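### Sample
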Amino acid sequence: MPEVPVPDTTLIDPRTGRARGSRPAARAPQVTAAVAAARRALPDWRALTPKERSRRLHRLATLIEEHADAYAERERAGTGKPAHEAAGEVEQMADLFRFYAGAVRAQPAPAAGALVAGHESWVRWEPLGVIGVVVPWNYPLMMAAWRCAPALAAGNTVVAKPAETTPDALELLAEHAREALGEGVLTALPGDRETGRLLVAGEVDMVAFTGSAGAGAEVAARAGTRRVSLELGGNSPVVVLPDAPEDTWAQLAAATTYNAGQSCAVPARVITLRANYASALAGLGAAMRERVAGRDFGPLNNADQAARYDRIVASSAAKVTVSGDTAPGAGEDGGYWRPATVLADLPDDDPAVLEEVFGPLLTVQAAESVEAAVALANGVPQALAASVWTRDLPTGLALAARLDAGETWLNCHLVQTAELPHGGRGASGHGTDLSALALHEYQRPKTVTARLLMAPPPSLT
């Protein structure tokens, strides 16, 4: 058969909107070869003791730290993030590999012992095999670490497809993984949506996908009976009571504009009581004006996302719109820069309320009561993250418990660490990222029971 030509994907710098290079988009032969390499590497990798896998993962983390500048440069090229954001995410990625290098050596086990008379039973946690990972463009490094680190620590091999617009950083991670972990243990497979479809439908044992709800539904359908872990975005409510801390607005503005708002767990919908609606709008507007595109946060990632963002904002029925500034020089050469924005006085069924906007934007709604605020907060299909802001700790904790979200914060937002699990509900998907619990996403338990053949002890009577 003639060799199938591999199309090139043009890479765009989101800061300028101009081409910065290209990558071949893998097709069936390349996908098949990558999965086959992972399959060949699997027996030796899974046979390693947790101690040895841990040692190699620590070596990978060291390589990441030693080449932190190169990782940050690649991250910025694909996303346009400010230098401080990219550097911080490289540090977090290395920390995640170190966390799972330790966690795999300390896994708790289910009960074992003589659970049936005359028998001894125990449980083995076994890797699933070859994991197909699909990584989004908003956090090319951190999302790769969230998925790949626990999968590798658990004894699996991984074929990871980066987003079409941001292959650079994951390619470097795969190079260092080859050095630290071995050939075929972690492979990067650059490409487009068709590449992702081929990987999901390929000979992998599990698919871990992070992306949009629509794409997640397609992934689940293509995966069939295989295990799937889906993190599918959010539309986070932020319930602000009249006694909220003084720094609430500054905290929310900073969280909303981090990564230009392109985060599944970012604050999205501010819900106040009628009594503090006007003051909330004033405080939030002032805080968002302080966040400057090009200084405090970067551009949107790509032309499609910018067009989608503009469509949602243009179709909103908001009567009040507050916009921040763009730093001098940012956007003069093009690019997908959008200012920090607040939309208020809008109906509950407004597109900016119901859809995940994925940009530096907050909506503000007023509720007539706490009950109504909870109903608004839980009134969208997504259920990934939420926050409550009040000085009254018992009230805040009680309210946080009523919000339907996989992760809830009180008087903070986007505070995450490797030790705490993160996962969605409803249209936000299912499965667990982060924490030791994520190891079990990529493992299956096997119960082993042995009949004891030894003679019974002599009677004492």
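The chain has a mean pLDDT of 95. This sample (Aldehyde dehydrogenase family protein) is used throughout the tutorial notebook.
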